[in-house]
Amino acid sequence: xxxxxxxxxxxxxxxxxxxxxxxxxxxxxxxxxxxxxxxxxxxxxxxxxxxxxxxxxxxxxxxxxxxxxxxxxxxxxxxxxxxxxxxxxxxxxxxxxxxxxxxxxxxxxxxxxxxxxxxxxxxxxxxxxxxxxxxxxxxxxxxxxxxxxxxxxxxxxxxxxxxxxxxxxxxxxxxxxxxxxxxxxxxxxxxxxxxxxxxxxxxxxxxxxxxxxxxxxxxxxxxxxxxxxxxxxxxxxxxxxxxxxxxxxxxxxxxxxxxxxxxxxxxxxxxxxxxxxxxxxxxxxxxxxxxxxxxxxxxxxxxxxxxxxxxxxxxxxxxxxxxxxxxxxxxxxxxxxxxxxxxxxxxxxxxxxxxxxxxxxxxxxxxxxxxxxxxxxxxxxxxxxxxx
Length: 388
What we know:
Blueprint: E1 11-14, H1 21-25, E2 31-36, H2 40-43, H3 46-54, E3 58-62, H4 71-83, E4 88-93, H5 95-108, E5 136-140, E6 152-157, E7 160-165, E8 173-176, H6 186-204, H7 212-234, H8 239-252, H9 266-278, H10 282-296, H11 302-311, H12 320-337, H13 354-363, H14 377-387
Parallel strand pairs: 1-8, 2-3, 2-4, 4-5, 5-8
Antiparallel strand pairs: 6-7
Protein backbone atom coordinates (compact mmCIF):
# COMPACT_ATOMS: atom_id res chain seq x y z
CA UNK A 1 0.00 0.00 0.00
CA UNK A 2 1.27 3.48 -0.89
CA UNK A 3 1.72 6.28 1.65
CA UNK A 4 -1.31 8.57 1.76
CA UNK A 5 -2.87 11.62 3.38
CA UNK A 6 -6.62 11.51 3.93
CA UNK A 7 -8.70 14.58 4.67
CA UNK A 8 -12.44 15.02 4.31
CA UNK A 9 -14.27 17.59 6.44
CA UNK A 10 -17.74 17.30 4.86
CA UNK A 11 -20.63 16.60 7.23
CA UNK A 12 -23.16 14.18 5.74
CA UNK A 13 -26.82 14.48 6.75
CA UNK A 14 -28.39 11.32 5.35
CA UNK A 15 -31.96 10.05 5.26
CA UNK A 16 -35.58 11.11 5.10
CA UNK A 17 -36.72 14.62 5.98
CA UNK A 18 -33.28 16.13 6.50
CA UNK A 19 -33.88 19.49 4.77
CA UNK A 20 -34.56 21.22 8.08
CA UNK A 21 -30.90 20.65 8.95
CA UNK A 22 -30.08 23.56 6.64
CA UNK A 23 -31.20 25.92 9.38
CA UNK A 24 -28.72 24.43 11.84
CA UNK A 25 -25.65 24.57 9.62
CA UNK A 26 -26.02 27.92 7.83
CA UNK A 27 -25.37 30.96 10.07
CA UNK A 28 -28.58 32.75 10.95
CA UNK A 29 -27.22 36.09 9.74
CA UNK A 30 -25.80 34.76 6.47
CA UNK A 31 -26.54 36.25 3.06
CA UNK A 32 -27.18 33.13 1.00
CA UNK A 33 -26.94 32.41 -2.71
CA UNK A 34 -28.92 29.35 -3.84
CA UNK A 35 -27.47 27.75 -6.98
CA UNK A 36 -29.36 25.25 -9.09
CA UNK A 37 -29.65 23.86 -12.61
CA UNK A 38 -32.77 23.70 -14.76
CA UNK A 39 -36.34 24.23 -13.76
CA UNK A 40 -36.93 20.86 -12.08
CA UNK A 41 -35.77 22.11 -8.67
CA UNK A 42 -38.36 24.88 -8.91
CA UNK A 43 -41.16 22.76 -10.41
CA UNK A 44 -40.73 20.11 -7.73
CA UNK A 45 -41.09 22.73 -5.02
CA UNK A 46 -37.63 21.98 -3.62
CA UNK A 47 -36.32 25.55 -3.98
CA UNK A 48 -39.45 26.89 -2.26
CA UNK A 49 -38.94 24.46 0.64
CA UNK A 50 -35.30 25.48 0.96
CA UNK A 51 -36.22 29.18 1.02
CA UNK A 52 -38.84 28.56 3.68
CA UNK A 53 -36.26 26.81 5.87
CA UNK A 54 -33.79 29.65 5.34
CA UNK A 55 -36.37 31.92 6.94
CA UNK A 56 -35.29 35.51 7.45
CA UNK A 57 -31.84 35.12 5.94
CA UNK A 58 -31.29 37.31 2.89
CA UNK A 59 -31.47 35.01 -0.13
CA UNK A 60 -30.42 35.36 -3.77
CA UNK A 61 -30.83 32.76 -6.51
CA UNK A 62 -28.76 31.70 -9.50
CA UNK A 63 -30.20 29.07 -11.82
CA UNK A 64 -29.27 27.67 -15.19
CA UNK A 65 -26.08 25.77 -14.32
CA UNK A 66 -25.71 23.30 -17.17
CA UNK A 67 -25.33 19.49 -16.94
CA UNK A 68 -21.68 20.11 -17.84
CA UNK A 69 -21.20 23.42 -16.03
CA UNK A 70 -19.73 26.08 -18.27
CA UNK A 71 -17.18 28.63 -17.17
CA UNK A 72 -19.08 31.40 -18.97
CA UNK A 73 -22.20 30.68 -16.91
CA UNK A 74 -20.43 30.34 -13.58
CA UNK A 75 -18.62 33.67 -13.78
CA UNK A 76 -22.02 35.36 -13.84
CA UNK A 77 -22.68 33.87 -10.40
CA UNK A 78 -19.28 35.12 -9.23
CA UNK A 79 -20.50 38.65 -10.01
CA UNK A 80 -23.55 38.06 -7.79
CA UNK A 81 -21.29 36.89 -4.95
CA UNK A 82 -19.18 40.04 -5.22
CA UNK A 83 -21.99 42.55 -5.66
CA UNK A 84 -24.19 41.22 -2.86
CA UNK A 85 -21.58 40.25 -0.27
CA UNK A 86 -22.66 36.60 -0.32
CA UNK A 87 -21.20 34.74 2.63
CA UNK A 88 -22.74 31.29 2.12
CA UNK A 89 -23.76 29.38 -1.01
CA UNK A 90 -26.22 26.48 -1.07
CA UNK A 91 -26.05 24.18 -4.10
CA UNK A 92 -29.34 22.43 -4.82
CA UNK A 93 -28.82 19.83 -7.52
CA UNK A 94 -26.65 17.01 -8.80
CA UNK A 95 -22.95 16.82 -9.43
CA UNK A 96 -22.89 19.51 -12.09
CA UNK A 97 -24.53 22.09 -9.85
CA UNK A 98 -22.24 21.16 -6.96
CA UNK A 99 -19.17 21.20 -9.25
CA UNK A 100 -20.20 24.58 -10.58
CA UNK A 101 -20.71 25.91 -7.09
CA UNK A 102 -17.21 24.79 -6.09
CA UNK A 103 -15.81 26.82 -8.95
CA UNK A 104 -17.94 29.83 -8.01
CA UNK A 105 -16.60 29.79 -4.46
CA UNK A 106 -12.99 29.56 -5.64
CA UNK A 107 -13.30 32.08 -8.46
CA UNK A 108 -14.97 34.59 -6.16
CA UNK A 109 -11.90 34.48 -3.91
CA UNK A 110 -9.37 34.82 -6.73
CA UNK A 111 -8.09 38.25 -7.72
CA UNK A 112 -6.80 37.38 -11.20
CA UNK A 113 -8.41 35.95 -14.32
CA UNK A 114 -10.46 33.03 -13.00
CA UNK A 115 -9.59 30.99 -16.09
CA UNK A 116 -6.24 30.52 -14.37
CA UNK A 117 -7.98 28.10 -12.02
CA UNK A 118 -8.59 25.73 -14.94
CA UNK A 119 -4.86 25.19 -15.47
CA UNK A 120 -4.03 23.10 -12.40
CA UNK A 121 -5.60 19.83 -13.55
CA UNK A 122 -5.50 17.20 -10.82
CA UNK A 123 -3.13 19.29 -8.68
CA UNK A 124 -4.69 21.18 -5.81
CA UNK A 125 -4.90 24.93 -6.34
CA UNK A 126 -2.42 26.37 -3.82
CA UNK A 127 -4.16 28.01 -0.89
CA UNK A 128 -1.93 31.07 -1.13
CA UNK A 129 -3.32 32.07 -4.53
CA UNK A 130 -6.85 32.29 -3.10
CA UNK A 131 -8.39 34.76 -0.73
CA UNK A 132 -11.16 33.97 1.74
CA UNK A 133 -13.31 31.29 0.11
CA UNK A 134 -17.07 31.52 0.56
CA UNK A 135 -18.28 28.34 2.30
CA UNK A 136 -21.03 26.27 0.74
CA UNK A 137 -23.32 23.35 1.43
CA UNK A 138 -25.28 21.03 -0.84
CA UNK A 139 -28.69 19.45 -1.19
CA UNK A 140 -28.15 16.45 -3.45
CA UNK A 141 -30.83 15.69 -6.04
CA UNK A 142 -28.96 13.25 -8.32
CA UNK A 143 -26.68 10.46 -7.04
CA UNK A 144 -23.76 9.97 -9.41
CA UNK A 145 -20.60 12.02 -9.13
CA UNK A 146 -19.79 12.00 -5.42
CA UNK A 147 -19.21 15.76 -5.63
CA UNK A 148 -21.26 16.16 -2.47
CA UNK A 149 -18.37 14.76 -0.40
CA UNK A 150 -15.19 15.63 -2.26
CA UNK A 151 -13.20 18.67 -3.31
CA UNK A 152 -13.09 18.14 -7.08
CA UNK A 153 -15.03 19.68 -9.94
CA UNK A 154 -15.02 19.43 -13.72
CA UNK A 155 -15.66 22.66 -15.60
CA UNK A 156 -16.36 23.06 -19.31
CA UNK A 157 -14.62 25.83 -21.22
CA UNK A 158 -14.48 26.21 -24.99
CA UNK A 159 -14.02 22.63 -26.27
CA UNK A 160 -12.56 21.09 -23.14
CA UNK A 161 -13.44 19.85 -19.68
CA UNK A 162 -11.04 20.84 -16.92
CA UNK A 163 -10.58 19.33 -13.44
CA UNK A 164 -10.47 21.87 -10.61
CA UNK A 165 -9.40 20.82 -7.10
CA UNK A 166 -8.75 22.64 -3.85
CA UNK A 167 -8.73 21.71 -0.17
CA UNK A 168 -11.01 24.73 0.27
CA UNK A 169 -13.74 23.38 -1.99
CA UNK A 170 -15.18 20.63 0.20
CA UNK A 171 -18.86 21.23 1.03
CA UNK A 172 -19.36 22.16 4.67
CA UNK A 173 -22.33 19.80 4.70
CA UNK A 174 -24.39 17.78 2.24
CA UNK A 175 -27.96 16.66 2.67
CA UNK A 176 -28.59 13.23 1.14
CA UNK A 177 -32.30 12.43 1.20
CA UNK A 178 -32.97 9.50 -1.17
CA UNK A 179 -36.64 10.51 -1.45
CA UNK A 180 -35.63 13.78 -3.16
CA UNK A 181 -34.33 11.66 -6.06
CA UNK A 182 -37.60 9.78 -6.68
CA UNK A 183 -38.71 12.05 -9.54
CA UNK A 184 -35.51 11.68 -11.58
CA UNK A 185 -35.85 10.41 -15.18
CA UNK A 186 -34.78 6.78 -15.70
CA UNK A 187 -31.84 7.71 -17.91
CA UNK A 188 -30.38 10.00 -15.26
CA UNK A 189 -30.64 7.28 -12.63
CA UNK A 190 -28.96 4.78 -14.97
CA UNK A 191 -26.21 7.28 -15.73
CA UNK A 192 -25.71 7.74 -12.00
CA UNK A 193 -25.36 4.01 -11.38
CA UNK A 194 -22.74 3.77 -14.12
CA UNK A 195 -20.87 6.87 -12.94
CA UNK A 196 -20.58 5.44 -9.44
CA UNK A 197 -19.54 2.05 -10.84
CA UNK A 198 -16.78 3.51 -13.02
CA UNK A 199 -15.58 5.86 -10.27
CA UNK A 200 -15.04 2.75 -8.19
CA UNK A 201 -13.36 0.85 -11.01
CA UNK A 202 -10.97 3.67 -11.90
CA UNK A 203 -9.52 3.38 -8.39
CA UNK A 204 -9.71 -0.40 -8.13
CA UNK A 205 -8.84 -1.78 -11.57
CA UNK A 206 -5.11 -1.05 -11.70
CA UNK A 207 -2.43 -3.32 -10.18
CA UNK A 208 -2.22 -4.93 -6.74
CA UNK A 209 -0.49 -3.07 -3.89
CA UNK A 210 -1.88 -5.24 -1.07
CA UNK A 211 -4.46 -2.62 -0.12
CA UNK A 212 -6.92 -5.17 1.22
CA UNK A 213 -9.29 -2.74 2.94
CA UNK A 214 -9.62 -0.54 -0.14
CA UNK A 215 -10.08 -3.55 -2.43
CA UNK A 216 -12.80 -5.08 -0.28
CA UNK A 217 -14.61 -1.76 0.09
CA UNK A 218 -14.46 -1.19 -3.67
CA UNK A 219 -15.76 -4.69 -4.36
CA UNK A 220 -18.58 -4.11 -1.88
CA UNK A 221 -19.61 -0.97 -3.74
CA UNK A 222 -19.50 -2.77 -7.09
CA UNK A 223 -21.59 -5.67 -5.78
CA UNK A 224 -24.10 -3.27 -4.27
CA UNK A 225 -24.49 -1.32 -7.51
CA UNK A 226 -24.96 -4.57 -9.45
CA UNK A 227 -27.57 -5.75 -6.94
CA UNK A 228 -29.64 -2.56 -6.83
CA UNK A 229 -28.99 -1.12 -10.31
CA UNK A 230 -32.01 -2.50 -12.10
CA UNK A 231 -34.36 -1.95 -9.17
CA UNK A 232 -33.42 1.66 -8.62
CA UNK A 233 -33.93 2.39 -12.33
CA UNK A 234 -37.27 0.57 -12.70
CA UNK A 235 -38.67 1.23 -9.21
CA UNK A 236 -38.03 4.95 -8.63
CA UNK A 237 -39.74 5.03 -5.23
CA UNK A 238 -38.00 1.95 -3.85
CA UNK A 239 -36.44 3.79 -0.92
CA UNK A 240 -34.01 1.06 0.10
CA UNK A 241 -32.60 0.63 -3.42
CA UNK A 242 -32.31 4.37 -3.93
CA UNK A 243 -30.74 4.88 -0.50
CA UNK A 244 -28.06 2.34 -1.35
CA UNK A 245 -27.41 4.05 -4.69
CA UNK A 246 -27.09 7.47 -3.04
CA UNK A 247 -24.59 6.24 -0.45
CA UNK A 248 -22.68 4.09 -2.94
CA UNK A 249 -22.21 7.07 -5.27
CA UNK A 250 -20.96 9.20 -2.39
CA UNK A 251 -18.60 6.53 -1.08
CA UNK A 252 -17.24 5.83 -4.56
CA UNK A 253 -15.54 9.21 -4.78
CA UNK A 254 -15.10 10.67 -1.31
CA UNK A 255 -11.45 9.62 -1.21
CA UNK A 256 -11.67 6.56 1.00
CA UNK A 257 -11.28 3.77 -1.57
CA UNK A 258 -8.64 5.76 -3.44
CA UNK A 259 -6.24 6.11 -0.53
CA UNK A 260 -2.92 4.34 -0.90
CA UNK A 261 -3.70 2.79 -4.29
CA UNK A 262 -2.80 3.57 -7.93
CA UNK A 263 -5.60 5.13 -9.96
CA UNK A 264 -6.43 5.10 -13.67
CA UNK A 265 -8.75 7.84 -14.96
CA UNK A 266 -8.34 6.99 -18.65
CA UNK A 267 -12.03 6.29 -19.18
CA UNK A 268 -13.03 9.62 -17.69
CA UNK A 269 -10.48 11.57 -19.71
CA UNK A 270 -11.59 10.03 -23.01
CA UNK A 271 -15.23 10.25 -21.95
CA UNK A 272 -14.92 13.97 -21.24
CA UNK A 273 -13.83 14.52 -24.83
CA UNK A 274 -16.85 12.59 -26.13
CA UNK A 275 -19.16 14.77 -24.08
CA UNK A 276 -17.45 17.98 -25.19
CA UNK A 277 -17.44 17.00 -28.87
CA UNK A 278 -20.72 15.13 -29.30
CA UNK A 279 -22.86 15.98 -26.28
CA UNK A 280 -23.13 12.37 -25.08
CA UNK A 281 -24.12 12.14 -21.42
CA UNK A 282 -21.12 11.66 -19.13
CA UNK A 283 -22.36 8.36 -17.68
CA UNK A 284 -23.04 7.00 -21.15
CA UNK A 285 -19.53 7.87 -22.36
CA UNK A 286 -18.14 5.81 -19.49
CA UNK A 287 -20.30 2.81 -20.43
CA UNK A 288 -19.00 3.08 -24.00
CA UNK A 289 -15.31 3.40 -23.21
CA UNK A 290 -14.78 1.21 -20.15
CA UNK A 291 -15.28 -2.27 -21.65
CA UNK A 292 -12.79 -1.35 -24.38
CA UNK A 293 -10.27 -0.09 -21.81
CA UNK A 294 -10.47 -3.42 -19.98
CA UNK A 295 -9.99 -5.32 -23.22
CA UNK A 296 -7.08 -3.27 -24.55
CA UNK A 297 -5.32 -3.13 -21.15
CA UNK A 298 -5.94 -6.72 -20.10
CA UNK A 299 -2.20 -7.50 -19.81
CA UNK A 300 -1.42 -4.45 -17.66
CA UNK A 301 -4.48 -5.10 -15.48
CA UNK A 302 -4.30 -8.90 -15.53
CA UNK A 303 -4.08 -9.55 -11.78
CA UNK A 304 -6.86 -7.14 -10.83
CA UNK A 305 -9.05 -8.28 -13.74
CA UNK A 306 -8.86 -11.84 -12.46
CA UNK A 307 -9.59 -10.67 -8.93
CA UNK A 308 -12.57 -8.68 -10.25
CA UNK A 309 -13.82 -11.68 -12.25
CA UNK A 310 -13.69 -13.97 -9.24
CA UNK A 311 -14.79 -11.69 -6.40
CA UNK A 312 -17.38 -9.51 -8.15
CA UNK A 313 -18.75 -11.76 -10.91
CA UNK A 314 -18.09 -15.13 -9.22
CA UNK A 315 -16.24 -16.46 -12.28
CA UNK A 316 -14.06 -19.41 -11.33
CA UNK A 317 -14.04 -21.66 -14.40
CA UNK A 318 -11.89 -21.40 -17.51
CA UNK A 319 -8.39 -20.15 -18.19
CA UNK A 320 -7.32 -16.60 -17.37
CA UNK A 321 -8.28 -15.12 -20.73
CA UNK A 322 -11.69 -16.80 -20.65
CA UNK A 323 -12.34 -15.42 -17.15
CA UNK A 324 -11.34 -11.93 -18.25
CA UNK A 325 -13.45 -12.11 -21.42
CA UNK A 326 -16.49 -13.14 -19.40
CA UNK A 327 -15.91 -10.43 -16.78
CA UNK A 328 -15.74 -7.77 -19.50
CA UNK A 329 -18.88 -9.13 -21.13
CA UNK A 330 -20.75 -9.18 -17.82
CA UNK A 331 -19.69 -5.58 -17.21
CA UNK A 332 -21.06 -4.53 -20.60
CA UNK A 333 -24.23 -6.57 -20.02
CA UNK A 334 -24.74 -4.81 -16.69
CA UNK A 335 -24.57 -1.38 -18.31
CA UNK A 336 -26.95 -2.45 -21.07
CA UNK A 337 -29.38 -3.93 -18.53
CA UNK A 338 -29.83 -0.36 -17.28
CA UNK A 339 -30.91 0.73 -20.75
CA UNK A 340 -27.58 2.34 -21.66
CA UNK A 341 -25.94 1.98 -25.10
CA UNK A 342 -22.34 0.80 -24.98
CA UNK A 343 -21.13 1.56 -28.51
CA UNK A 344 -20.27 4.90 -30.13
CA UNK A 345 -22.02 3.89 -33.35
CA UNK A 346 -25.33 3.80 -31.46
CA UNK A 347 -24.77 7.51 -30.80
CA UNK A 348 -24.02 8.11 -34.51
CA UNK A 349 -20.30 8.50 -33.88
CA UNK A 350 -18.26 6.38 -36.28
CA UNK A 351 -14.62 5.62 -37.04
CA UNK A 352 -14.19 8.78 -39.13
CA UNK A 353 -14.51 10.84 -35.92
CA UNK A 354 -11.67 9.07 -34.09
CA UNK A 355 -8.96 11.42 -35.46
CA UNK A 356 -10.94 14.38 -34.13
CA UNK A 357 -11.12 12.82 -30.67
CA UNK A 358 -7.41 11.99 -30.73
CA UNK A 359 -6.59 15.60 -31.67
CA UNK A 360 -8.61 16.84 -28.71
CA UNK A 361 -6.79 14.46 -26.35
CA UNK A 362 -3.51 15.76 -27.74
CA UNK A 363 -4.60 19.40 -27.44
CA UNK A 364 -5.48 18.88 -23.78
CA UNK A 365 -2.21 17.14 -22.96
CA UNK A 366 -3.84 13.75 -22.41
CA UNK A 367 -1.05 11.81 -24.09
CA UNK A 368 0.23 9.66 -21.19
CA UNK A 369 -2.79 8.27 -19.38
CA UNK A 370 -3.36 5.32 -17.02
CA UNK A 371 -2.03 4.31 -13.62
CA UNK A 372 1.44 3.96 -15.16
CA UNK A 373 1.29 6.95 -17.57
CA UNK A 374 2.12 4.70 -20.51
CA UNK A 375 -1.21 4.92 -22.33
CA UNK A 376 -0.28 6.84 -25.47
CA UNK A 377 -2.49 8.39 -28.13
CA UNK A 378 -1.98 5.24 -30.22
CA UNK A 379 -3.46 3.16 -27.41
CA UNK A 380 -6.31 5.65 -26.94
CA UNK A 381 -7.02 5.17 -30.64
CA UNK A 382 -7.22 1.38 -30.17
CA UNK A 383 -9.65 1.90 -27.28
CA UNK A 384 -11.82 4.16 -29.41
CA UNK A 385 -11.75 1.71 -32.32
CA UNK A 386 -12.99 -1.06 -30.01
CA UNK A 387 -15.72 1.30 -28.75
CA UNK A 388 -17.33 1.81 -32.16
